[in-house]
Amino acid sequence: MPRHARLVIPDIPVHLIQRGHNRNACFFCEDDFQHYLRWMMRFAKESDCDIHAYVLMTNHVHLALTPRDSGSLAVLMKMLNQRYVAYINKKRNWTGTLWEGRFKSCLMFDQRYFLTCMRYIELNPVRAGMVGHPRDYPWSSYRTNAEGVSNPCITPHAIYQALGNTESDRHSAYRNFMSSKDDDINTDNLRRATNGNYVLGDTVATEELATALGRRVTPGKRGRPYK
Question: Is residue 130, in this structure, part of any structural domain at all?
Fold first, then answer.
C-alpha cells in the first residue's frame, strides 16, 4: 500500500513521534540527550518551528510543535536527525541509520486534542514506569509547562496560554489538567491518527481537507465493515 504524503499546514500544531530502528535505543547517556535538545532548539529556530512540548525516551521521541511554513517540519527533522545520527555513529563507531524510518505525525485542529497531546507526551516516562511523577524525568518539557522552569526550547502555544491570565495561573491549571483522569478515547484517537498520518479535530474542517486532497484524512472505524 502506497504511503500517504505527509499532512502539514502552516500554523496548525502537530504531534510527532520518531522511533529508534527496530525500537532499539537511540539515547545512551546524559550527553546524548543534551546534544539532541541543543540541536533541536537550534534547528527549530532555523526551520521556523515552535516546540511546545517534548519527551526524549530511550528509544523514541515525542514532540508537539507548530510549523510556520509547509516545509518547516520536514526541514527540522531532516537536519536534526542527520546531525544526531552522525554524532552517534562517530561516537560509537557505527554506520547506517539510527531511526526507524519516516517519523509519524498528525495535525491537531482541536484544542482538546492539543492539551491531550501535551499530557500524553509528558506522562510517557510515568506510563513506562521510569518515574513516579513527570517532574522527576529530566528529558521532558513538564517542568517548564507545569512549574515554570526556564527552557529555551519551549514556545508556549496560544491554547496553553489561554489556560490562565498569568504564568502562575497557567502553571496551576496545567498541573490540574495533568493530574486529572486521562481521556482514554481522545488518547487512543491521538495514537491512531499519529501512526496513520491523519488529522484530529473539527468534522467540518477535516471533511473540507479530505475533499481538497481527494483522500481520507481521518482514521476509519475499527472492526469489520457493517453489512
Answer: yes
- Judge whether 220 lies within some domain: no
Question: Closest by alpha carbon to 49, among 63, 38, 35, 32?
Answer: 63
- What is the total count of domains within the chain? 1
Evaluate whether 82 touches 89 at the Cβ level (below 8 Å): no
Torsion of CA 223, 101, 119, 122, to 10 degrees: 140
Q: To which H or E segment does residue 104 belong?
A: strand 104-108
Query: Which amino acid makes up residue 150?
Result: S
Q: Who's near 218: CB < 8 A, 6+ residues apart?
A: 193, 198, 199, 200, 206, 210
Q: What is the pLDDT of residues 100-146, one digit of tens each?
A: 988 999 999 888 899 999 999 999 999 999 999 999 999 999 999 99
Q: Binning pLDDT at 50, 70 and 90, where does residue 199 land?
A: confident
Report pTM: 0.90
- Residue 102 within a domain: yes
Closest by CA position to 14, among listed 81, 111, 114: 114
Q: What residues make up the domain containing 131?
A: 14-213
